[in-house]
Design a protein that fits this description.
- The structure holds 2 protein chains of 2 kinds.
- The radius of gyration of chain A is 19 Å and the shape is globular.
- The longest helix of chain A is centred in the C-terminal third of the chain and has 18 residues, at 175-192.
- In chain A, α3 runs parallel beside α6.
- Chain A has a domain at 32-52 and 81-241: Rossmann fold, CATH 3.40.50.
- In chain A, the strands form 2 sheets. In chain A, strands 6-7-8-3-9-10 form a 6-stranded mixed β-sheet, sandwiched between helices. In chain A, strands 2-1-4-5 form a 4-stranded antiparallel β-sheet, covered by helices on one side.
- By secondary structure, chain A is an alpha/beta fold.
- Chain A contains 10 helices and 10 strands.
- By secondary structure, chain B is an all-alpha fold.
- Chain B is 72% helix and 2% strand.
- A two-stranded antiparallel sheet of chain B has the order 1-2.
- In chain B, a hairpin with a 2-residue loop joins β1 (129-131) and β2.
- Classes of the chains: A alpha/beta, B mainly alpha.
- The A-B interface holds A 51-53, 55-58, 77-79, 81-83, 87-90, 94-99, 103-104, 106-111, 139, 141-142, 145, 155-156, 158-159 and B 87-88, 161, 164-165, 167-168, 171-182, 286, 289, 291.
- Chain A: Belongs to the ABC transporter superfamily.
- Chain A: Residues 4-243 form the ABC transporter domain.
- Chain A: Pfam families: ABC_tran (PF00005).
- Chain A: This is Branched-chain amino acid transport system ATP-binding protein.
- Chain A: Keywords: Amino-acid transport, ATP-binding, Nucleotide-binding, Transport.
């Protein structure tokens, strides 16, 4: 089995708060998979469990297995996971604000462990995101939200990943920028066979570009399937895509409003 | 006039040596993002170490080199044993931790090596250097030169790839982990480098005033230097050091005679106070960038 596999992962914050309750999911090599869900559903926690970033938030994996290819990820620290080819683009972009875009890329370059030279990787990033090159001399903290998101993705690409995890890249961005960034992610996925795990609230835009998706709610996966299948699912349409048409809310019976998969 | 110039020049040289003590603070802040209130004790510890190695019969230059290696190791050890537990904790925890370390070392090191002042002879000699009727303290002159060299080296260091990575770590720990930077190693490295800077400051100050616990009180002018210059700016250390040194030499030079002495610490305190009131991030310190 290549790719990423989570089985029955449970994460507890501060030793008391159970954030995800037995999440299992698979991302095959070269696939583009989305993890959809509303606020507080456990999307970011799932990603942090995979990338090993729970520690600073006093979170802990209490059960389950996370494998990437043949390696068990649980004993590895975050930098060791990046070395295995797993990279996480954090929610809210988190660029190094006091460094220039160039320096942001330098910081992520793995030096002796890298296969390609820094210049080569940097030029590739600038080819995908030409805007960044124009802003190469200003501090990253002063870039616009979209440019920062591009930089965060570019910075992740410099680590030469096999799998990239994106946590809400559309957050706070204009729809036209979301479309641009999603198109670039899709291009990288198709041209370079980079596996993508995309976490989003923006289900409509996401289901257009991914192969498969998981739906997470209250720390549990409640639905999964091909993007096309999910798009046709009436519950997904109603609660995520908002395409139920004009609904007379007085006419629907109360129980219809409840999500079927949790009943 | 000659008196004024003498105060000015010697103040500037002392200021550069303050800058040397402050350099360790800035190095750690710039690369790990934590304030290091134990820098005074590190300086003292480095001086004691070099003195001890010298008293074992090692030539002074070898003692300094070995001392630098040991202090580097000590910096790594501090990260491994203490700071690694502070991950994810609020910054006040680190402040308290380093302050506690300062107090502990202040008591422990003189306790182990002896509290009486120890001479540390660098072979500089005591005769003042006289340039155009201005008397300059020879040790301060060499100290100032060493300070400028070390500060320049630090500036260059932060332009290298490794230095850029350390700056990235100080910006955002979680984002650094996410792109594969080992925050732990970066913090350890910065403490190690600060240990080496402490050797520079400890040896030079130790040769001027003898090695005893009072070396750790350099923390106070060093804090004034970094607050004035900006806690994360190497350039700020240089400028802040010069300013604190000159003001701390010229003003007491005239005021001491009137009020009966010891105005230097007052000047230093006023510098800290005014900087925080007028320009809290210092002359060259970075402002936190916040997008609205």
């Amino acid at each position: 089995m290549t790719g990423l596999a989570l089985s029955n992962v449970e994460v507890v914050y501060d030793k008391v708060f159970l954030a995800i309750k037995g999440v299992s999911l698979e991302v095959g090599e070269g696939e583009m998979v989305a993890l959809l869900g509303s606020n507080g559903a456990g999307k970011s926690t799932t990603l942090k469990a995979i990338s090993g970033l729970l520690g600073p938030e006093r979170g802990e994996i209490t059960r389950g297995e996370i494998r990437f290819g043949d390696t068990d990820l649980r004993p590895l620290g975050a930098p060791a996971r990046v070395d295995r080819g797993l990279v996480h683009v954090l929610e809210g972009r988190r660029v190094f604000g006091h460094l220039t875009p160039d320096e942001n890329l330098v910081a992520a370059y793995r030096g002796g462990k890298a296969e390609r030279s820094f210049e080569e990787l940097r030029d590739e990033v600038y080819r995908y995101f030409p805007r960044l090159k124009e802003r190469a001399r200003s501090k990253a903290g002063y870039l616009s939200g979209g440019e920062q998101q591009m930089l965060a993705i570019g910075r992740a690409l410099v680590t030469e990943p096999k799998l990239i995890m994106l946590d809400e890249p559309s957050l706070g961005l204009a729809p036209v920028l979301v479309a641009e960034i999603f198109a670039i992610i899709r291009e990288i996925n198709q041209k370079h066979g980079l596996t993508v795990l995309l976490v989003e609230q923006n289900a409509a835009a996401t289901l257009e570009i991914v192969n498969r998706a998981y739906l997470i709610e209250n720390g549990q996966i409640v639905m999964s399937g091909e993007a096309e299948t999910l798009k046709r699912n009436p519950d997904v349409q109603e609660f995520y895509l908002g395409s139920g048409g004009k609904v007379d809310y007085h006419a629907i019976k109360h129980y219809r409003r409840r999500k079927r998969w949790l009943a | 006039m000659a008196y004024f110039i003498e105060l000015l020049v010697n103040g500037a040289l002392v200021g550069l040596m303050y800058a040397l003590a402050a350099l360790g603070f800035v190095l750690i802040y710039k690369s790990a993002g934590v304030p290091n209130l134990a820098q005074g004790a590190l300086v003292m510890m480095a001086a004691y170490l070099v003195w001890y190695l010298g008293s074992l019969g090692l030539p002074i230059w070898i003692a300094i080199a070995v001392g630098a290696a040991l202090m580097f190791g000590f910096g790594l050890l501090v990260e491994r044993l203490l700071l690694r537990r502070m991950v994810g904790q609020p910054v006040i925890m680190v402040v308290m931790l380093t302050l506690g370390m300062e107090i502990l070392l202040r008591g422990l090191i003189p306790g182990v090596f002896g509290a009486a002042p120890k001479p540390l002879d660098l072979g500089i000699g005591l005769a003042p250097v006289i340039v155009a009727d201005v008397f300059m303290n020879r040790a301060y002159l060499i100290g100032g030169l060493v300070a400028v060299l070390l500060i320049a080296a630090s500036m260059l260091f932060f332009r290298t790839r490794l230095g850029t990575k350390l700056r990235a770590v100080s910006d955002d720990h979680v984002a650094s982990w996410a792109v594969g930077l080992s925050v732990e190693r970066a913090i350890g490295l910065s403490w190690g480098i600060a240990g080496i800077a402490a050797v520079g400051a400890g040896v030079l100050w130790g040769s001027v005033q003898g090695v005893d616990w009072t070396l750790s009180t350099l923390l106070f002018p060093a804090i004034a230097v970094v607050i004035l210059g900006g806690v994360d700016s190497i350039k700020g250390v240089l400028v802040g050091g010069l300013a604190v040194g000159i003001l701390g030499s010229v003003i007491p030079g005239y005021l001491d005679a009137m009020v009966g002495g010891s105005t230097r610490d007052v000047v230093t305190s006023v510098i800290i106070l005014l900087t925080i009131l007028v320009r809290p991030h210092g002359i060259f310190g970075r402002e936190d960038i916040e997008r609205i």
